[in-house]
Amino acid sequence: MSNSSEVNLYWHKIRNSVDELVACLERLDSDALNWKPLDDANSLYVLATHTMGNVRHNFLNILCGRDITRDRDSEFAAMGKSAAEVEAGWNALQGRISEAIQELPPGDLDRIRDDPQRGKITGRELMIIVARHAAEHFGQAQLTRDLVKARRSE
Question: Which of 16, 30, 103, 152 is spaced 20 to 30 A from 97 at the CA atom?
Answer without folding.
Answer: 30
